[in-house]
Structures are given as C-alpha cells and as structure tokens.
Specification:
Blueprint: E1 2-5, E2 32-34, H1 40-57, E3 63-66, E4 76-90, E5 100-105, E6 112-116, E7 124-127, E8 135-149, E9 155-158, E10 164-167, E11 173-178, E12 182-188, E13 193-195, E14 198-200
Length: 201
C-alpha cells in the first residue's frame, strides 16, 4: 500500500512532536519513502492519486510512502451505518503548515460507513462495495465523524485518536488510517467525490 503525501512527512523516525491544534496536521511517521513507478498499471494508479492530491490541495505532492504491509484495506467489512459528517484539519490551499479545520456534511445521502469485519456483532457483514485502491491520497488529520448507526438508528460520534483522512485516487472512497493500527474505517457510496472545492456528495 502506497500513500501520497507532502514532503515534510517524517520518514526516518525523527520526533515530530504530537499532532495538536498548534501542530502540523499533515505530518506523521507513516512509513518509508519509495520511488515513483515509471510504467505499468501501478504507475497509472500512482499518477491518479497524485493528481487527486493536486486537485484537492492545489499544490504538488512530493513523496510516496510505503506503509506497514500488514496494513491493508479490508475487503470484508461491517456496515456500521450512514455517514452524516466528517471533520478534518489540513493545509490545503495554503502554505504547508497553515492548517484550517473543515467539516464535510453529507447532503445527498447514501454514504455508508464501514469498519473491518467483526468490529461489531450487530453490524451487517458484507463486502466493500467499491474496489479497494492500492494507493491513497492524504487529505488531512481526522477530527472525528458522526454516523447514524444501522442497529438502533441512533446518531453517534467517533474520533479515533491519531487517525488521518485519506481518499482513493478516483475520489469515491474516504478512509481513516492510523499509523499504529492500520485502516480503521472506510466511507463510500452516494455521490461522494473529492474535488477542488473539497469533499462533495
């Protein structure tokens, strides 16, 4: 699994400090830098992910990071419920380190939230409805989400500590990723897209 990230991500174990409202939302130790593939399907996917980074951030990505090989996007998942909103902190549109908080409110509905299989006894076991990408694009630091759970239709807040928000190269999937724990949740469906103005759908 490859991540498309800005150049100031720590890749050699140096202490970058904790991610706080005064810290760098786009900085974390995700893994090790790898060269950009030059040909083949993998190169096309990486190019798509880099283009999505440019579309969203209005600046160029500068590194490809390979994460822990045990951290894969699960194909078997639990459908937790309907995603209502997700908040994140990022320096898109601004110089690196000038972080702003944003909230994507799902306006058109149909975006489902999934977690790895067997996360919840009550959840519907299913397959991920879109193809899991081999490359993902960093959008920012996750600030939490709200979901309408399918079991009791209650509205719940979740804010996994130390999670980052990524998207697929096509922009049809959002992913929460923890450098320590791997992929925590995936959202897709409806008219979800990641565009110049932000997350849409």
């Amino acid at each position: 699994m490859i991540l498309v990230v800005p150049e100031d991500v720590d890749i050699d174990g140096r202490d970058i400090g904790s991610i706080t409202p005064n810290g760098r939302a786009m900085a974390a130790n995700f893994g090790r830098e790898v060269p950009q593939p030059r040909k083949g399907r993998r190169a096309e996917t990486v190019n798509d992910a880099m283009n999505r980074y440019h579309t969203f951030h209005k600046k160029e990505p500068r590194q490809l990071i390979e994460i822990d090989p045990r951290h894969t996007i699960p194909s078997r998942v639990d459908r937790v419920g309907e995603l209502l909103s997700i908040a994140y902190r990022t320096d898109k549109w601004y110089k690196d380190g000038h972080d702003i908080d944003y909230r994507h409110v799902v306006e058109q509905g149909g975006q489902s939230l999934y977690e790895p299989a067997n996360s919840h006894r009550w959840a519907t076991k299913t397959k991920l409805p879109v193809k899991a990408p081999g490359v993902v694009t960093l959008l920012g630091k996750s600030l939490g989400l709200f979901v309408k759970r399918e079991d009791d239709e209650g509205i719940y807040e979740a804010n996994p500590r130390g999670a980052f928000l990524f998207c697929s190269p096509s922009g049809d999937m959002l992913l929460l990723y923890s450098p320590d724990e791997g992929f925590l949740a995936m959202a897709c469906g409806g008219k979800l897209s990641v565009e110049t103005h932000g997350i849409d759908g």
